[in-house]
Write a structure and sequence with these properties.
Layout lengths: L6 E2 L7 E2 L2 H9 L19 H21 L17 H12 L2 E4 L6 E4 L8 H19 L17
Antiparallel strand pairs: 1-2, 3-4
Length: 157
Protein backbone atom coordinates (compact mmCIF):
# COMPACT_ATOMS: atom_id res chain seq x y z
CA UNK A 1 0.00 0.00 0.00
CA UNK A 2 1.32 3.42 -0.93
CA UNK A 3 0.20 6.48 0.98
CA UNK A 4 0.59 9.97 -0.36
CA UNK A 5 -0.29 13.34 1.09
CA UNK A 6 0.08 16.92 0.00
CA UNK A 7 1.71 19.32 2.41
CA UNK A 8 2.20 23.07 2.34
CA UNK A 9 5.14 24.94 3.84
CA UNK A 10 4.64 28.64 4.32
CA UNK A 11 7.28 31.10 5.42
CA UNK A 12 7.88 31.02 9.19
CA UNK A 13 5.19 28.34 9.69
CA UNK A 14 5.49 24.57 10.24
CA UNK A 15 4.78 22.10 7.45
CA UNK A 16 1.02 21.56 7.21
CA UNK A 17 -0.43 18.33 5.80
CA UNK A 18 -3.62 18.88 3.81
CA UNK A 19 -6.36 16.63 5.26
CA UNK A 20 -3.98 15.57 8.02
CA UNK A 21 -6.69 13.68 9.91
CA UNK A 22 -7.42 11.48 6.91
CA UNK A 23 -3.70 10.90 6.32
CA UNK A 24 -3.07 9.98 9.98
CA UNK A 25 -6.03 7.60 9.85
CA UNK A 26 -4.56 5.83 6.82
CA UNK A 27 -1.17 5.64 8.57
CA UNK A 28 -2.82 4.07 11.64
CA UNK A 29 -4.20 1.26 9.44
CA UNK A 30 -0.71 0.17 8.32
CA UNK A 31 0.55 -3.16 9.57
CA UNK A 32 3.51 -3.15 11.98
CA UNK A 33 6.88 -2.74 10.28
CA UNK A 34 9.43 -0.21 9.06
CA UNK A 35 8.44 2.40 6.49
CA UNK A 36 10.32 4.98 4.47
CA UNK A 37 8.83 8.46 4.29
CA UNK A 38 9.93 10.81 1.55
CA UNK A 39 9.10 14.46 1.18
CA UNK A 40 9.71 16.03 -2.19
CA UNK A 41 8.75 19.36 -3.62
CA UNK A 42 5.77 19.13 -5.94
CA UNK A 43 6.25 20.46 -9.42
CA UNK A 44 3.79 21.11 -12.15
CA UNK A 45 4.57 18.77 -15.02
CA UNK A 46 4.09 19.69 -18.65
CA UNK A 47 0.50 19.57 -19.77
CA UNK A 48 -1.30 17.61 -22.46
CA UNK A 49 -2.22 20.84 -24.29
CA UNK A 50 1.49 21.72 -24.41
CA UNK A 51 2.31 18.31 -25.91
CA UNK A 52 -0.58 18.69 -28.35
CA UNK A 53 0.71 22.08 -29.49
CA UNK A 54 4.24 20.68 -29.81
CA UNK A 55 3.28 17.64 -31.91
CA UNK A 56 0.36 19.14 -33.87
CA UNK A 57 1.78 22.56 -34.65
CA UNK A 58 5.43 23.17 -33.72
CA UNK A 59 7.00 19.95 -34.99
CA UNK A 60 5.07 19.73 -38.30
CA UNK A 61 5.85 23.36 -39.18
CA UNK A 62 9.48 22.98 -38.10
CA UNK A 63 9.72 19.84 -40.25
CA UNK A 64 8.33 21.69 -43.28
CA UNK A 65 10.75 24.60 -42.71
CA UNK A 66 13.70 22.18 -42.50
CA UNK A 67 12.64 20.54 -45.78
CA UNK A 68 12.13 23.95 -47.43
CA UNK A 69 15.64 24.96 -46.30
CA UNK A 70 17.09 21.87 -47.98
CA UNK A 71 17.63 19.52 -45.04
CA UNK A 72 17.29 15.83 -45.75
CA UNK A 73 18.68 12.55 -44.39
CA UNK A 74 22.16 11.72 -45.63
CA UNK A 75 20.92 8.41 -47.09
CA UNK A 76 18.17 10.03 -49.16
CA UNK A 77 19.87 9.08 -52.45
CA UNK A 78 19.87 5.37 -51.59
CA UNK A 79 16.48 5.44 -49.85
CA UNK A 80 14.29 8.23 -51.26
CA UNK A 81 11.34 6.94 -49.24
CA UNK A 82 13.18 7.81 -46.02
CA UNK A 83 12.51 11.53 -45.89
CA UNK A 84 12.59 13.61 -42.73
CA UNK A 85 10.00 12.59 -40.13
CA UNK A 86 8.47 14.02 -36.99
CA UNK A 87 10.66 11.56 -35.07
CA UNK A 88 13.75 13.13 -36.70
CA UNK A 89 12.49 16.57 -35.70
CA UNK A 90 11.86 15.40 -32.13
CA UNK A 91 15.39 14.00 -31.84
CA UNK A 92 16.95 17.10 -33.42
CA UNK A 93 15.07 19.46 -31.11
CA UNK A 94 15.96 17.46 -28.01
CA UNK A 95 19.62 17.58 -29.07
CA UNK A 96 19.59 21.30 -29.87
CA UNK A 97 17.34 22.62 -27.11
CA UNK A 98 17.10 20.10 -24.28
CA UNK A 99 20.46 18.40 -24.00
CA UNK A 100 22.83 18.79 -21.10
CA UNK A 101 26.52 18.16 -20.75
CA UNK A 102 28.16 15.74 -18.37
CA UNK A 103 31.78 16.39 -17.50
CA UNK A 104 34.34 13.85 -16.37
CA UNK A 105 35.98 15.60 -13.43
CA UNK A 106 39.20 13.60 -13.93
CA UNK A 107 39.75 14.12 -17.66
CA UNK A 108 37.61 17.14 -18.48
CA UNK A 109 35.85 15.13 -21.20
CA UNK A 110 32.35 16.37 -22.06
CA UNK A 111 29.52 14.07 -23.04
CA UNK A 112 26.26 15.47 -24.34
CA UNK A 113 23.11 13.75 -23.12
CA UNK A 114 19.82 14.40 -24.92
CA UNK A 115 17.04 15.81 -22.79
CA UNK A 116 13.86 13.98 -21.95
CA UNK A 117 10.56 15.78 -22.38
CA UNK A 118 8.84 13.45 -19.94
CA UNK A 119 10.73 15.15 -17.09
CA UNK A 120 9.86 18.72 -18.17
CA UNK A 121 7.90 21.03 -15.95
CA UNK A 122 5.32 23.35 -17.48
CA UNK A 123 7.83 26.20 -17.54
CA UNK A 124 10.61 24.03 -19.02
CA UNK A 125 8.25 22.92 -21.81
CA UNK A 126 7.34 26.54 -22.56
CA UNK A 127 11.05 27.42 -22.70
CA UNK A 128 11.78 24.43 -24.97
CA UNK A 129 8.99 25.35 -27.39
CA UNK A 130 10.02 29.01 -27.45
CA UNK A 131 13.63 28.04 -28.21
CA UNK A 132 12.41 25.97 -31.20
CA UNK A 133 10.24 28.85 -32.45
CA UNK A 134 13.11 31.35 -32.18
CA UNK A 135 15.65 29.05 -33.87
CA UNK A 136 13.17 28.33 -36.65
CA UNK A 137 12.65 32.05 -37.25
CA UNK A 138 16.34 32.95 -37.04
CA UNK A 139 17.95 30.10 -39.00
CA UNK A 140 15.17 28.83 -41.27
CA UNK A 141 13.20 32.03 -41.79
CA UNK A 142 10.05 30.22 -40.72
CA UNK A 143 7.16 31.24 -38.53
CA UNK A 144 5.55 29.04 -35.91
CA UNK A 145 2.47 30.68 -34.37
CA UNK A 146 2.11 31.11 -30.64
CA UNK A 147 -0.02 28.63 -28.73
CA UNK A 148 -3.77 29.05 -28.98
CA UNK A 149 -3.58 31.32 -32.03
CA UNK A 150 -5.94 30.31 -34.78
CA UNK A 151 -4.36 29.62 -38.16
CA UNK A 152 -5.17 27.50 -41.15
CA UNK A 153 -2.35 25.23 -42.25
CA UNK A 154 -2.09 23.83 -45.74
CA UNK A 155 0.53 21.24 -46.69
CA UNK A 156 1.20 20.42 -50.30
CA UNK A 157 2.23 16.87 -51.10
Amino acid sequence: MKLEAIAIKEKDKPLRVVNSGLFRGECDKLSPGRYRMTIERMRKNKSNPQLGYLFACVYPLFLQHLIDAGYEPDDIMEHPENGLTINDVDNLCKKLFASRKLVNRHTGELIEVPGMKRQFTTVEMMTYIEAIRQWDAEYLGGYIPEPESQIQMQFNN
